[in-house]
Design goal:
The complex is a heterodimer of chains A (366) and B (507). Chain A is an all-alpha fold and 366 residues long. Chain A has 15 helices and no strands. Helices cover 74% and strands 0% of the residues of chain A. Chain B has helices spanning 44-51, 74-79, 97-102, 111-129, 144-157, 174-189, 201-207, 230-238, 297-304, 331-338, 347-351, 358-361, 380-394, 410-423, 440-455, 467-473, 496-503; strands spanning 4-15, 18-29, 33-38, 59-64, 67-69, 82-85, 162-166, 193-198, 210-215, 218-224, 256-266, 272-282, 286-290, 312-317, 320-321, 340-343, 373-374, 377-378, 428-432, 459-463, 476-481, 484-490. In chain B, the strands form 5 sheets. Chain B has a 6-stranded mixed sheet, sandwiched between helices. In chain B, strands 16-19-20-13-21-22 form a 6-stranded mixed sheet, with helices on both faces. The chains are: A mainly alpha (366), B alpha/beta (507). The A-B interface holds A 4-6, 220, 224-226, 229-230, 232-233, 236-237, 239-240, 242-247 and B 15-18, 305-307, 329-336, 342, 344, 346, 349-356, 360, 363-365, 367-368, 372-373, 376-378, 380.
């Protein structure tokens, strides 16, 4: 994407995404007005729901945690020029790994079972991305197609497992038994209670810090290490990568594994941080939101943090809003998310021409 | 004053902050061959694109045959009798010559009528201008020189009185170029006006009547060709005195560094790209590989640099057989460690990553070296220091380590690549088109540097389509044609004619 010479960097980095965001909110507002609700009031309710009270903030950050992982997953692949839209399936399969470990070993102490579960999430998520990565590298099968297909396969596989194999005895719901407390990732309010800090009771858990660490590591690896250098070279110019003696196939496969592993870590937040059992469809679109998070965050950790926060707030604020206003359903929130993805992703450069023209005029007038 | 076919008065064009054409005022006399010369980025192409209607000027007037016109599209330009022959041909390969020429100018519901009419017209044009093109030949099967003539025919068919040719000889052998010039003279003698954009001074002196010299978006000289010398033009183009002559001491070849024999390469479709290539290369000598582009030179470099596997044959480098070398890493990486550096032909697509900063490009291919690492991370400080040294030593401008390399000029990009490859202190340097798209000032620098490397005892293999360059730098010249070596000459005995014949496959 060529950046027009007469647009300052800050404008293309900050102003454009914000304009896109406002455009998406504006259109959402129009639709809300159409169904007879007051958009301004709704926006207020949403913002209040997400940030207005301690519990809301806790939930917002809980959702943000998962979005950071799936956003990083998409961004990692993107730096190698790969569009991994299989985060949903990778997270689902990682959930299987976590579940298997927990069902077998949750009698072990937390400091054994939780790292084991994390390892399983990384391995299962990575393995589920390995196959499309291998097919892309060695057979040229397009990663977009294969990762989509792998989402469906993951979903069918998990349905079968949850209905026929893993379901709790005597229960009709396709879910496992609850994991023993040893396998629960500590909630932040539990951590902080002994220190005398009282936090509200929310599912926000230690995975949040793991996500922050992942953001920092991501930055270091991508921009400050040979591994990241090699990845970006493959993504930006494959011919140059071959010239430089970089094993392009291996890089593609390895990056896909890392991407899948990152998506897999979102399962830790959900399963060990909140539900403490595996439910059917627990991923609930988190993998897909990761695509939007990465797109809007420009595949940079800072951007991903901010856009994950936005989508986290949207989810939490949206849920609050639909409690208050029955006319605004969950679908309405998904619709708004969709619009944001549309404006920030697909129509990313919608305002580029008028904006750069405006800057040109401004410069002339000076 | 003779009548002007095209006149520009005070034409300006900006792209963002870049002032690509500054207050351009000049005229092209009717019935002349007019050369426009200038270094890359001097604004020649922008100017021609304005005349041909691709771009609109921000200000200024364009007069065609004395009448002010607004040319809003290439369609309008064609309507005004202006035709353009692009550097990259705009032809449909599986179509016949006739079909290509009618393309975009068809009339009626079915093609038959217009094809028949076109055939008659075409034959007349063919005769008038001595173009000798068979209307029923499939374009894809024609040689490059003939395809170019098809392009010329196309513009004539559309009634062009003014022909603009953009670097027309870049893809031709010297003989084909002579042919083209013969045609251009015929066109001129029949009253057509020809505008020739080029950076080759020899051509300008050969064929043009007038020359306009551009530098940094401005016109810096308008002269009658008869009144100037090559040196005058070069100085005008660069804006300072240029030393076009390379002082070359006799080579002192040392030990054999590279020995190639029986090298063959067959691609997946079964086409033989390299046929039984064999030659030796010694320390302290430059061997030039001449040939029209696409005759196997690129593939040879790819094989020697490890980017591509040969089908059969032997490559001995300092006594190591490379063909059977087993490596865990890709061969390109392994060869590099053995001491083979490579400046690739396609600089912008192979030799660098445009979106990377200068300092990142300064370690491409050497990114795993312990000297740039600190544990798991890069030693950023060492990398930037190294890049800073490259910039100083090779006079890279602007002298910025943190700037996307795609924003540098071709010459400065090449300097960074050259610096990087030399830094590794290789025994063998493979060099593809070292000065393609590089301005004269930088060419001078790069050539001197390559000679210096030779004198330090490196072995250099030079592939270039610029015969002047091959002749100026090489100690021995190997000519390739159709994937095979068609001849070898000591540089002292080589002339453009003798090389040209070998390039065309005549032994």
């Amino acid at each position: 994407m060529s950046q027009p010479a007469n647009m300052p960097r800050w404008a293309s980095l900050w102003l454009m995404p914000l304009l896109n965001l406002f455009a998406a909110l504006f259109v959402s507002g129009l639709v809300i007005a159409l169904i007879g609700e007051d958009p301004v009031e709704c926006l207020k309710l949403m913002i209040n729901g997400a940030f207005g009270y301690p519990e809301g903030i806790g939930y917002t950050l809980f959702y943000t945690t998962s979005f950071i992982f799936t956003g990083l997953a998409v961004a990692a692949a993107f730096h190698a020029g790969l569009f991994n839209i299989g985060g949903e399936g990778q997270m689902y399969l990682a959930g299987l790994g976590v579940t298997l470990v927990c069902l077998q070993f949750d009698y072990l102490p937390a400091y054994v079972v939780i790292p084991l579960a994390m390892l399983a999430a990384i391995l299962f998520g990575g393995a589920w991305a390995l196959v499309p990565g291998y097919l892309q590298a060695k057979r040229g099968s397009h990663i977009v197609v294969t990762t989509i297909m792998f989402n469906f396969i993951a979903s069918s596989l998990m349905t079968w497992l949850l209905v026929d194999k893993l379901r709790m005895e005597g229960s009709q719901t396709p879910a496992t038994r609850e994991f023993a407390q040893n396998a629960w990732v500590p909630m932040l309010h539990e951590w902080f209670a002994p220190l005398g800090v009282e936090l509200p009771n929310t599912p926000l858990n230690a995975s949040f810090f793991l996500a922050l660490i992942a953001l920092v590591l991501f930055y270091l690896v991508v921009w400050h290490s040979p591994k990241g250098f090699v990845t970006r070279t493959v993504g930006l110019n494959e011919k140059a990568a071959r010239y430089a003696g970089i094993p392009v196939d291996k890089v593609i496969i390895a990056v896909m594994c890392v991407s899948g592993a990152l998506a897999g870590l979102a399962a830790i937040n959900e399963l060990l941080g909140s539900t403490h059992r595996m439910n059917m469809g627990f991923t609930n679109g988190i993998g897909f939101v990761g695509i939007a998070v990465a797109l809007m965050g420009r595949n940079h950790p800072v951007g991903i943090l901010l856009s994950a926060l936005l989508f986290g707030a949207l989810t939490q604020g949206g849920l609050d809003l639909s409690f208050e206003k029955p006319a605004i359903t969950r679908e309405m929130i998904i619709f708004t998310q969709g619009l944001i993805i549309l404006f920030c992703g697909a129509l990313e450069n919608l305002f580029q021409t008028p904006l750069s023209a405006a800057f040109k005029r401004m410069l002339k007038n000076q | 004053m003779a009548e002007l076919a095209i006149e520009l008065i005070g034409v300006n064009k900006h792209f963002g902050e870049v002032h690509a054409n500054k207050n351009i005022t000049f005229g092209v006399r009717k019935g002349t061959v007019h050369g426009i010369i200038g270094e890359n980025g001097a604004g020649k192409s922008t100017l021609m694109s304005i005349i041909y209607g691709y771009y609109q000027a921000d200000s200024g007037t364009i007069k065609i045959n004395g009448k002010a016109e607004r040319i809003r599209s290439s369609h309008a330009a064609i309507g005004l009798g202006i035709g353009m022959v692009h550097q990259h041909f705009m032809l449909v390969d599986p179509f016949t010559v006739l079909e290509n020429i009618v393309l975009g100018a068809e009339g009626g519901i079915t093609l038959d009528g217009s094809l028949a009419a076109a055939r008659t017209h075409l034959q007349k044009l063919n005769q008038d201008y001595g173009l000798q093109v068979d209307p029923d030949a499939i374009v894809g099967e024609l040689g490059v020189g003939t395809q170019q003539r098809v392009e010329i025919l196309k513009t004539l068919y559309r009634g062009a009185d003014v022909l603009i040719l953009d670097e027309p000889t870049a893809v031709l052998t010297p003989q084909e170029a002579d042919d083209l010039f013969r045609i251009l003279r015929l066109l001129r003698d029949q009253g057509k006006t020809v505008i020739l954009i080029t950076h080759k001074l020899r051509e300008v002196l050969d064929i043009t009547d007038d020359v306009t010299v551009m530098r940094a978006g401005e016109i810096v000289g308008q002269v009658r060709t008869a009144d100037v010398t090559k040196e005058d033009l070069a100085d005008l183009m660069v804006g300072r005195k240029v030393n076009m002559h390379l002082d070359k001491a006799a080579a002192v070849p040392g030990k054999k560094v590279l020995s190639v024999s029986g090298l063959n390469l067959v691609d997946s479709r079964g086409v033989a790209l390299l046929k039984d290539i064999g030659f030796d290369l010694h320390a302290g000598e430059i061997v030039g590989i001449a040939g029209v582009s696409g005759n196997g030179q690129s593939e040879l470099l790819e094989v020697l640099s490890g980017m591509r596997e040969a089908t059969s044959g032997s490559v001995q480098f300092k006594g190591t057989e490379l063909a059977t070398l087993k490596t865990r890493e890709p061969k390109a990486a392994a060869y590099r460690k053995l001491g083979i550096a490579h400046i690739p032909e396609d600089r912008s697509r192979e030799g660098m990553v445009k979106d990377f900063m200068t300092f990142e490009n300064a370690i491409l291919g050497y990114h795993d070296d312990p000297s740039v690492r600190r544990g798991f991370l890069f030693n950023r400080k060492a990398i930037i220091e190294r890049c800073r040294r490259f910039i100083d030593e090779f006079d890279v401008r602007p002298a910025l380590t943190h700037r996307r390399i795609g924003l540098f000029s071709g010459g400065n990009q090449q300097k960074v690549i050259l610096a990087r490859e030399i830094h590794a202190n290789p025994d063998l340097l493979l060099i593809g088109q070292p000065t393609r798209g590089v301005d004269i000032g930088a060419i001078e620098f790069i050539h001197k540097r390559l000679m210096q490397l030779r004198d330090e005892g490196k072995a250099l293999l030079l592939v270039s389509v610029e015969l002047d360059e091959i002749m100026a730098l090489s100690d021995r010249i190997i000519v390739m044609n159709g994937g095979a070596i068609s001849g070898e000459l000591p540089a002292a005995e080589a002339t453009a004619t003798s090389l040209g014949l070998l390039m065309g496959g005549h032994k």
